[in-house]
Amino acid sequence: MILVTGGAGFIGSNFVLDWLAQNNEPVINLDKLTYAGNLNNLLAVQNDPRHLFVKGDINDGALLAQLLAQHKPRAIVHFAAESHVDRSIHGPAEFISTNINGTFSLLEAVRAHWQALPEAERAAFRFLHVSTDEVYGTLGPDDAPFTETTPYAPNSPYSATKAASDHLVRSYHHTYGLPTLTTNCSNNYGSYHFPEKLIPLIIANARAGKSLPIYGDGQQVRDWLYVSDHCTAIRRVLESGRTGETYNIGGWNEKANLDVVHTLCDILDELQPKATGGSYREQISYVADRPGHDRRYAIDARKIERELGWKPAETFDTGIRKTVQWYLDNDAWVRDVQSGAYLTWLEKNYTAR
Ligand code: NAD
Q1: Quick check: is 342 catalytic?
Q2: Which ligand 1 atom minimizes the distance to the CA of 7?
Q3: What is the CATH number of the domain that holds 85?
Q4: Using a 6 Å cutoff on CB, does residue 101 contact ligand 1?
Q5: What is the ipTM metric for this complex?
Q6: Which residue out of 133, 166, 300, 305 is catalytically annotated?
């Protein structure tokens, strides 16, 4: 049994689906179901006895203690976070509460549980903290990509709170000996991605005939990784990573935002041509840049490749095509998110166990 936090969000739900497809080991999925948590993502495992969904907050120490005592998971995979940079600019308080205080409360509950385990179980236990490359700050065009030893220099409230949580995790390993692992991954894309983020937003707006907003000059560079490759990497780190270590995860796919948008328009032009003719590119509109917008992120993923033999299975070209196709095939999911209908889904449909 493993315990996943934030398993109703974008990456967490992909991870839970992937985990249950690859293993027979059950998952407790603890998620607060904020606006970003969506049980529609988990329809495929709704009645799977190996999936136990618990609606709850990682700040709730009593709930955490009870879940750990009752289910005795051998590992924690910690995804739960406030994750949207723009929201962190307009309202950082939730980011402090979940990303910093929530990670602290989770670490405290896990430490107490772990310290009481018999020696052999203590040694085998793992706490895997899922983090971002944004903690490293921004790169110039000619700078080498981030490695695991790049100094932290977060620039947004989101990345600052993730950096703080990374440091807390690190300290619990060095101070208490908790067997931790931290992963710092680049931008993910793929199925179940909430349409406030660049790729699903562009696909949704293009199809709705709305404008495709580009921040500033659109030349901000990100490294992109298909979400199922991230899930595979996390499984690999969980099974074989060295405790106390951090692993950078990336796809070697540096792309300027404008190029990503052009690619999406071109794939849509091919798969779903506009009824009115012309290209989706005509809907592009430039908007004021995000304050403090980092110019470039790039990940050096050689450590995880060398030590754990992980490599992404998808290139950007194959992954982005699959992603567009997924959104074309899953209109109902997008509509539910846009209308807010998914927010009442738990009450209507989910059988609590
Ligand atoms: P998401 O916003 O889609 O999902 C976050 C999930 O956490 C949601 O289901 C939400 O309900 C839940 N949650 C929020 N606050 C909670 C709380 N207090 N208690 C319990 N659950 C809570 O995020 P995501 O994009 O899936 O990212 C998951 C993790 O991966 C985050 O830690 C993020 O920092 C990290 N990450 C994301 C990316 C990316 O490109 N999306 C890249 C690298 C790392």
Answers
A1: no
A2: 9
A3: 3.40.50.720
A4: no
A5: 0.99
A6: 133
